[in-house]
Amino acid sequence: MNIYQKMLETLLYNCILDREAYAYFHVIADALTSLLAIVALITGKYFGWVWMDPIMGIAGAIVILKWAYSLVTQTGKILLDYNADKDIITKIKAILESDSDTRLADIHAWKLGSQKHAAIVSIVTHYPKAPDYYKGLLKSLIDIAHLTVEVHTCDDEPCIPQS
Prior knowledge:
By secondary structure, the chain is an alpha+beta fold. 54% of the residues lie in helices and 17% in strands.
C-alpha cells in the first residue's frame, strides 16, 4: 500500500466527505508536482542537469495518474450503482429470517455513496406483517438510506406455529 492509498483510507474512514477528501488530494498532488518542477529547475540551473526537467515531468504525471485512477475507480462504482458488499446482504438476510418463519426470496442492494446503501427485499412468510414492520427490523443497519420491502404470503403449510 502506498502513501496515497494510506492517506485516502485515513481520510475516508474518519468520516470526511468524499468530495473534501478528493479536494485535499488534488491540492496535495498540485503541491507535489509544483515541488518536482522547482527541483528540476534548480538542478538544471545550478548543476546543469537539464535532463531533470523531463524526468520530473514524468514523475509528476505518474503522481497525477495514480490519484486520478484512485478517484475514477472509487467514484465509478458509486456512479454505476455498484452492488453492495456481501456483508450488508448477509446482515439483512440474518435479521429478516430471524423473525418468525420469514424467508428472504430476493434481494437487490447497491451502494449510494461510500458509506450508504439502498436495498429492495422480497420476503415470503405465512404470517405477513406490514412492510414498515420489516423496515423497523432493519433500522439497526444505519448504513441503509433507502429500503423497499415486498411482502408475499406463503400459501403452503406453515413451517412453524404462529407465536
